[in-house]
Write a structure and sequence with these properties.
The chain is mostly beta strands.
Length: 126
């Protein structure tokens, strides 16, 4: 069973930066971290979970929700089985619980179950 352990997050002032990390482990013998597309989601109080950024299994094709383009960067280190979300110029509306997500991808199609990290609180406030 794939396990995702998140770190980072916390309280920062508007305009500040944070970096979230999500370390993966527990892959079945046939698969490795590089077989999984990785995605960051967030959920603010009273709102639905929102896709923030996603990256392909070999680090290609990063995509972002419009509200974070130019401020957030998703990256991954397949040697460390870890995905990152660098968040710059943070705004109060970025306040949410952030979750990482892993799902195997093959031939451009997501396959099998999706796995979730435990969630990390990010609070932007002066």
């Amino acid at each position: 069973q794939v396990q995702l352990v998140q770190s980072g997050g916390g309280l920062v002032q508007p305009g500040g930066s944070l970096r979230l990390s999500c370390a993966a482990s527990g892959f079945a013998s046939r698969f490795t971290f590089s077989n999984y597309a990785m995605t960051w989601y967030r959920q603010a109080p009273g709102k639905e979970r929102e896709l923030v950024a996603t990256i392909g299994n070999i680090g290609t094709n990063p995509n972002y929700v419009d509200s974070v383009k130019g401020r957030f960067t998703i990256s991954r280190d397949n040697a460390k089985d870890t995905v990152y979300l660098q968040m710059n110029n943070l705004k109060p509306e970025d306040t949410a619980v952030y979750f990482c997500n892993a799902q195997r991808i093959w031939a451009g199609v997501l396959r099998g179950p999706a796995y979730w990290g435990q969630g990390t609180q990010v609070t932007i406030s002066s």
